[in-house]
Amino acid sequence: MTNKSLVVISAGLRQPSSTRLLADQLAAAVRANANDIASNLEVETIELRDTAHDVVNNLLVGYPSPSLDAVIQKVTEASGLIIASPVFAASVSGMFKSFFDVIEKDALAGKPILLAATGGTPRHALVLENVIRPIFIYLRATVVPTAVFAATEDFGGASSGGALSERVDRAARELAQAMKIYVSQKAEAPSEGTTSFDLHLAAGSRDAHLPG
Known about the structure:
Elements: E1 5-10, H1 18-33, E2 42-47, H2 52-61, H3 66-77, E3 80-88, E4 91-92, H4 94-101, E5 112-119, H5 127-138, E6 142-143, E7 148-151, H6 162-188, H7 197-203
Parallel strand pairs: 1-2, 1-3, 3-5, 5-6, 5-7
Antiparallel strand pairs: 3-4
Helix pairs in contact: 1-6, 2-4, 6-7
């Protein structure tokens, strides 16, 4: 994995998955907006359903299998992350939360992250702000301001397209900009676990009011 890598994490349980579909749209939009780093940008998608058994074993025994350790290394070394989860019972899936529970607490500090979620109706949209964003603020990641929620009606219905596409493009531009700063600063001062003032600015002032 290079230091110009975008890792896309999809926590969809089924195939095909609307969560994976949204994640793919976001990845394509980030690549289109990452002009300064796109020529060397490596994009890899991780389906968390493929790690489910290893994650449970990690929680039970306290250390990862070699295959799970390789996945965690890709995530922690990435220049940016897109994280997409389905919404169940007003929260994320247990598999989604368990995966990030087995990653070291400071491993995502300062890393640019774009959050996304899917659900049956728009009523679940606030799960992004009330449940998912606080997890990554606690982990001291640099979460971009725009999070993207897509309901069933956003995929292929009469009302699909416009609003979701605009939000996807805005979030992608924010992540691409944050990744540009992150990559530049890692090249100049490759110290781990730091969060720069510029990255906080790129993520917007909202994060400053949330628990760190």
